[in-house]
Structure formats: C-alpha cells, structure tokens
Design goal:
about 270 residues, alpha/beta, Elongation Factor Tu (Ef-tu), domain 3, Rossmann fold, 2 domains, six-stranded antiparallel β-barrel, 6 helices, globular
Length: about 270
C-alpha cells in the first residue's frame, strides 16, 4: 500500500538562501506564534513536510540557524509556527513587519499523498505545523478526498490552529486533562476509526507518533511520520540529526538523517 502513492516530495531539488520579509508575527496561543514571511523562491518550490533553516539573530549575535516546518504557502509567502522556548525563538518573537530574515530552504523530503479516499492527519501541539500544507495539497489533487484531522494536547491551552483545518473536513480534539474534546490521548481517537481504505500522516511528540504508527500497523494503514530533531546545518553535514534505521539494514544505510533523508519517513523505516 505504501507504494500506491502520489509522489510530491521531489517537486524541489533546489535550495535557496533568501531574505524573507516579515509580513505577520503574532500569537496563536499563550506561547506559540505564527510568522509569515514573503519569500517567493522558497514559496514556489516548497512541498508539504519540508522545512527551512531560519536565522533568528539580529545584529552580530552568532546563533546557528533553526529548523522550522513550513506551515503553509500563501502566494509568495510562507507561514511558520513556532513556540518560544529559548533564546533563538525569543529573538524571533521580536521580529516586526518589514524586518528581513535570512532563510535557507526548502530542505528535506516531504509527504507523499497516498492514493486513497480517506486521509487522517494526526498532530500533537506544535506538530500541527506541517499538516495544514498537506491538507491543502490533498484537496488540490482530489477535491472529493475525505480528510479527518485529530489533534492532541495536554490541555485546551495547547490546542492550536484547529480552525484552519475545518474547511477540509472533520476535526477532533483530545486533551490529557479533559479540558477540551476527548479526555485522553489522541491515539484513543485514532483507535476508534475503522475505515479500511485510509492513510495516516502524523507529526508531534515521539511517543505520540510511535503510538499512531503502532495503531496504523495493526489496522494495515499506510503511515508517514514527520520527525523533529536538533540540527545545525539542515543538509546532512553536521550529523546532529542522525538515528538508527529500523530493520536489519541489509542493502540500506544503517543510519539516516532527519534533515536530508526525511523529515518525512514511512513509519516502518523508524519503528519495527
């Protein structure tokens, strides 16, 4: 089933260093913001699941670029979703409309759209970021496709951007503390789905994605996961995002890199 896919991840084989112009930088909840940058070259070549390396610093601060999934493409602009957790993202919070921000991208391999009529997008927290662009692409290729979006979070304050997904189909939410939607993990919502002809795409905390992959395997659903990892270069040189591939490794590289071999992988490449 995994081979029965519409390949979109090879749309771009070029990367650009481009000065993005800040058009929007505002909060979507208490600790997460949306940054929209006019970046025509990157916007024209990005596919769902790819990412950019962004220079967070102002002035002479020598910070390494940070990786961010492309949330969506809006004409000549790209949208990024980020959480303020350190010095780099704290500096990003200070970006103002009209500022120039150096970008490197698009990078990595994106999602492949499975040739099925039902697509389930499963995100956890900031892991919702790359799934919106995917939903848009699915509908562009097949307007009749059914899309179900599931998002999990610790509480209602961790649920983000769900209103953007309602135009594509059903949206279901779960929270660990029961403050919104289903009381429990998002995997509980996925377990209750029984459509045989369905593909699953997921991004979020590793434990959540591993649970999603296990359910998909048990139900014989194709499953793709978008991995996150610390990285300094985004192009496979620093080896900061390497990990051991699942399986016996016969005829394949033992280690893979999130930046250049992913960030999107078939679930069975990561977990047996």
């Amino acid at each position: 089933m995994l081979n029965d896919q519409l390949s979109v991840s090879e749309k771009s084989t070029s990367q650009f260093i481009e000065d993005g112009i800040v058009e929007f930088n505002e909060a979507v909840n208490y600790d997460t913001l949306e940054l929209i940058l006019k970046s025509p070259k990157i916007a024209a070549t990005t596919v769902p699941g790819q990412f950019v390396m962004l220079a967070c610093q102002r002035g002479n601060n020598a910070l390494l670029r940070r990786p961010f999934s492309v949330h969506t493409v809006i004409g000549d602009s790209i949208s990024l979703i980020y959480k303020v957790i350190g010095i780099g993202t704290k500096m990003m919070e200070e970006f103002r409309v009209g500022d120039k921000v150096s970008l490197l991208g698009p990078l990595g391999k994106g999602f492949n759209v499975a040739k099925t009529k039902h697509h389930c997008l499963v995100g956890g927290g900031i892991g919702m970021a790359p799934l919106l662009h995917l939903a848009q692409l699915i509908k562009e290729h097949d307007p009749e496709a059914k899309i179900t979006t599931l998002q999990g979070g610790q509480s209602s304050r961790n649920i983000i951007v769900m209103d953007k997904f309602t135009v594509f189909g059903d949206v279901l939410v779960s929270t660990d503390d029961g403050t919104e939607g289903h009381h429990g993990y998002v995997t509980g919502l996925l377990t209750e789905m029984h459509d045989e002809d369905m593909a699953v795409y997921t991004c979020g905390p590793t434990a959540m994605m591993k649970g999603v992959a296990a359910i998909a395997r048990d139900k014989s659903w194709a499953c793709q996961i978008a991995m996150e990892a610390p990285m300094a270069c985004g192009m496979g040189a620093c080896l900061g995002c390497s990990f051991l591939r699942a399986g016996d490794h016969q005829g394949v590289e033992k280690y893979v890199h999130v930046c250049k071999d992913g960030p999107v992988f078939a679930a069975e490449e990561i977990w047996d």
